């Protein structure tokens, strides 16, 4: 074999070796790349269990729970009803508070609900005797209720039953609360054997045409939503006035600022 042939074979062997190396490393690189891709493809994506974003259902707040609704009579107190007080069986200025206390329960409801201050029916009973000409021991008149409520910061409007229900509803819409006088003599579909009785209306719903009623004389009526038209029909027309609209409250004009509801009465659980 001559020298040139030896060189040619050496070159061929070198090229063959180089090609073998290229094939080996190329295969390894491809396998490495495929393995990496395989791992990436099989890595599970983060899965949200929802624990952090799903919370337990919360009870819907009930605005009515903050409305005061005192009861006046001895039966409610004997049955230990929430909102009843010992005043129901007591004699004040010669008469049973249970027989005449509805107006004072209404005024106490309004004062304790609308303002940041609080009082019981007996508290405002004593206040009325002090700031008006009310002598105690009987039902309070519209004029003396108005005088008492003005003394403790309220702007009010006394009104007679309007000719139409729509006018009455429009009046109710403008109020923070309304104190009304009802009688079964005018309509007995809701109240029975009731010559005259003060109740309070809160939270008029224009769409449903109903109100939240606080009725101190009947625990079964107290704290229920009733059609406003039912109230309209039962307004006592033999009285000088049928309702008193509570339009606003001004703390600066409140000469009382009574801060407590001390006394022997049963506070409901939601108020404790």
How would you portray this structure in words?
By secondary structure, this protein is of the alpha+beta class. The chain has a domain at 65-249: Cathepsin B, Chain A, CATH 3.90.70.30. The chain has helices spanning 3-42, 74-78, 97-100, 102-114, 121-131, 142-151, 165-173, 228-234, and strands at residues 91-92, 95-96, 152-159, 177-182, 197-205, 210-214, 224-227, 243-254. A six-stranded antiparallel beta sheet has the order 3-8-4-5-6-7, sandwiched between helices. Strands 1-2 form a two-stranded antiparallel ribbon. The model is unreliable at 20-61 (pLDDT under 50).
Mean pLDDT: 85
Largest sheet properties: 6 strands, antiparallel
Q: Helical proportion?
A: 25-40%
Helix count?
8
Termini distance?
116 Å
Structural class: alpha+beta
CATH C-level category of the domain at 65-249:
Alpha Beta
Q: Strands across the major sheet, in which order?
A: 3-8-4-5-6-7
CATH architectural designation of the domain at 65-249: Alpha-Beta Complex
Low-confidence stretches: 20-61
CATH fold naming of the domain at 65-249? Cathepsin B, Chain A
Radius of gyration: 40 Å
Strand content: 15-25%
Tell me the number of strands: 8
Order of helices and strands: HHEEHHHHEHEEEEHE
Write the layout of secondary structure elements.
Layout: H1 3-42, H2 74-78, E1 91-92, E2 95-96, H3 97-100, H4 102-114, H5 121-131, H6 142-151, E3 152-159, H7 165-173, E4 177-182, E5 197-205, E6 210-214, E7 224-227, H8 228-234, E8 243-254
Antiparallel strand pairs: 1-2, 3-8, 4-5, 4-8, 5-6, 6-7
Helix pairs in contact: 4-5, 5-6
